[in-house]
């Protein structure tokens, strides 16, 4: 397996729209060997967590893509990694995840010449905020993907989430957490406060995408750890209530990041689910 640290990032230029300026998005293709063997190779697009980036995924996307026999696309959302940073005076809006699902991700796929047949072979694999973005994309782009895997997603705001995010802010401002996160972001304050400020904004307490879930038609796997300090099983149980065909996996001895806590169990669950859909 190739070490992700040895792979240089590429950059996609997204033109300005009526609602935002131009964006420069850091991305990488992984497991290109899969693309060399079949013209109809499936693609896994990875959507990172609220403080994530390409670098923070480390080698897990590569390992999973090799297991699945898929080509993978990882990218850093605006404000993260080496992508266009968030201007420090700009606050993410309450619907920032819908903006990512309906504007930034489709624009990136366009920029990379991923046409509709290729999108229909694409699996979205999202973690935390990225899991919510995957759900929103699936709900609003029926027929434009093969399926989705959502890991520790948020579909509404829980007290446990707000409490943990407030604690993380204290750690960021009083410990070496800022320096640690600085390894993964060109502008670490842009990344951290973009995420932290919106989640701690009182207006965000009313945020919910529950009403959108019933529109999801493609295969859906929702995964949650029993020891997640950013959300409870109510998140994926709510998904199951509104998406009857969704399959749930609840992982023991697992916190908010199954790809770090129990990667083998996570990979087994994802591989088994995707195999069952083909």
What topology emerges from the helices and strands here?
Blueprint (H helix, E strand, L loop, with lengths): L9 E5 L8 E8 L1 H6 L5 E5 L6 H4 L2 H9 L2 E5 L20 H16 L4 H4 L2 E6 L1 H12 L6 E5 L7 H16 L2 H5 L6 H13 L19 E6 L8 H9 L4 E5 L6 H4 L1 H14 L2
CATH class: Alpha Beta
Distance between the termini: 25 Å
Oligomer type:
single chain
Number of strands: 8
Spatial order of the strands forming the largest sheet: 1-2-4-3-5-6-7-8
Series of H and E elements = EEHEHHEHHEHEHHHEHEHH
User: Which term fits the overall shape?
Assistant: globular
Number of helical regions: 12
Number of domains: 1
Strand residue percentage: 15-25%
Structural class: alpha/beta
CATH domain fold name: Rossmann fold
* Corresponding CATH architecture: 3-Layer(aba) Sandwich
Going by CATH, what is the homologous superfamily? Alpha/Beta hydrolase fold, catalytic domain
**Which segments are poorly predicted (pLDDT under 50) over 5 or more consecutive residues?**
1-5
Q: What radius of gyration results from the CA coordinates? A: 17 Å
């Amino acid at each position: 397996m190739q070490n992700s640290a040895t792979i240089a990032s590429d950059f996609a230029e997204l033109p300005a729209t009526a609602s935002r300026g131009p964006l420069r998005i850091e991305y990488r293709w992984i497991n290109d060997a899969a693309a060399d063997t079949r013209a109809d190779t499936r693609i896994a697009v990875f959507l990172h967590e609220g403080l994530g980036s390409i670098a923070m995924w480390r080698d897990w996307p590569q390992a999973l893509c090799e297991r699945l026999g898929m080509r993978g696309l990882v990218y850093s959302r605006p404000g993260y990694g080496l992508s266009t940073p968030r201007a420090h005076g700009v606050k993410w809006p309450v619907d920032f995840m819908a903006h990512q699902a309906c504007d930034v991700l489709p624009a990136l796929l366009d920029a990379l010449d991923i046409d509709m047949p290729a999108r229909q072979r694409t699996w979205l694999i999202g973690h935390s905020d990225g899991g919510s973005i995957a759900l929103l994309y699936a709900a609003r782009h029926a027929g434009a993907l093969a399926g989705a895997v959502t890991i520790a997603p948020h579909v509404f705001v829980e007290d446990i989430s707000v409490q943990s995010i407030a604690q993380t802010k204290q750690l960021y401002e009083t410990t070496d957490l800022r320096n640690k996160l600085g390894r993964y972001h060109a502008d670490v304050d842009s990344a951290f406060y973009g995420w932290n400020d919106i989640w701690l904004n009182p207006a965000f307490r009313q945020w919910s995408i529950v009403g959108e879930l019933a529109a999801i038609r493609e295969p859906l796997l929702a995964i949650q750890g029993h020891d997640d300090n950013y959300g409870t099983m109510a998140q994926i149980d709510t998904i199951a209530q509104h998406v009857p065909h969704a399959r749930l996996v609840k992982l023991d001895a697992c916190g908010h990041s199954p790809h770090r806590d129990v990667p083998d169990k996570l990979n087994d669950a994802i591989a088994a689910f995707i195999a069952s859909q083909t």
